[in-house]
Design brief:
This protein is an alpha+beta fold and 373 residues long. It folds into 2 domains: 220 residues, 3-Layer(aba) Sandwich (Rossmann fold), CATH 3.40.50; 137 residues, RNA polymerase II/Efflux pump adaptor protein, barrel-sandwich hybrid domain (OB fold (Dihydrolipoamide Acetyltransferase, E2P), Beta Barrel). The protein is 26% helix and 34% strand. The chain is built from 10 helices and 21 strands. A 6-stranded mixed sheet has the order 6-7-8-3-9-10, with helices on both faces. Strands 11, 12, 13, 14, 20 and 21 form a 6-stranded antiparallel sheet that branches. The radius of gyration is 25 Å and the shape is globular. The two termini are 41 Å apart.
Amino acid sequence: MAFLELNGITKYFGRQAAVNAIDLAIQQGEFLTLLGPSGCGKTTILRMIAGFENPSEGAILLEGDDITDRPANKRPMGMVFQSYALFPHMTVEQNIAFGMQIQHASRKRIEQRCVELLELVGLGDMGKRYPHQLSGGQQQRIALARALAVEPKVLLLDEPLSALDARVRVTLRTEIRRIQQQLKMTAIYVTHDQEEALAISDRIAVMAKGKIEQLDHPEEIYSNPQTVFAATFVGTSNQLSGVVESAEKGLCQADDGYTIHVAPLAATLNGKRVLLVVRPEEITLHASEGESRENGSGNHISGRIELRTFLGPFTRFHVRIDDKTLLTADIPSQQARGYDVEQQVVLTFPPSACQVLPIDADVEQAATITTKY
């Protein structure tokens, strides 16, 4: 039995299903992230778990107990909001103590817990300050400490880092993960930031239109997407649409006429329209066709460098193949020095680098030959 279970959870707002028949099993001590664009239903799921929204259908079980209709203040949950939601007229210590006072904890226990939590979040000397005297990152650390003060069984985090600058976000997400692992606490994290989700999660539920598209470990989500949406939403990717010409031989005909070699496919895909997804780091750059044939294998596509972007350890090249096709290659910066804008190059990538996903008519427009930046 899972620690926390969502069984057929559905939530309607009017006639629109914001969350549609979600089944989810979360293990004790797991860090699960709900990842998706705005409006996909991820925050609504979090609010139903917290008790701020009631499901239209389905049940929520915690350690086997049905808590679907239990009010929010009776659920053993701690929640961290995007907006910090600290009480401005209270000191840091008073903010942390608030939930414990509601639970009628002793003064000694409250004082001891405040000291422990301030040390845990790295702000041991700031208990007497007020929220306006803290930076945004410090305020969010206090919001986290306040959520942990009541010793919840589940920690819920609703885009807690989205209001912070990039450097603080990276630091604080690492701190949140460290604290969660140190306390062995079950945590559910909501974000639209793919890098954030990949960096800190045990598992990721990729969501779209109220449904879970794929639920898996970060490595699998990135390297082995199971749906067109998961493949195109998570990470930077080259997306090539075409038709399977020979599944057994791994041959696909791209819409613009060239052949793409992939790993052998199931025979049922013969003649089917597919989306081919190739990550930029799987592509190698060559100065000439001869060099590419000598050093590369599998697919060879000629083009012209349209844009060169230095990104530290690697350099990103946008290579124009034809009027519609622009491919991206991430090359280690040491190897990228000999290439520049307007240069003719050959891109190579092995058949194993291509993820092949069937596409339906309703997603045909999204599966054009394009690159996601």
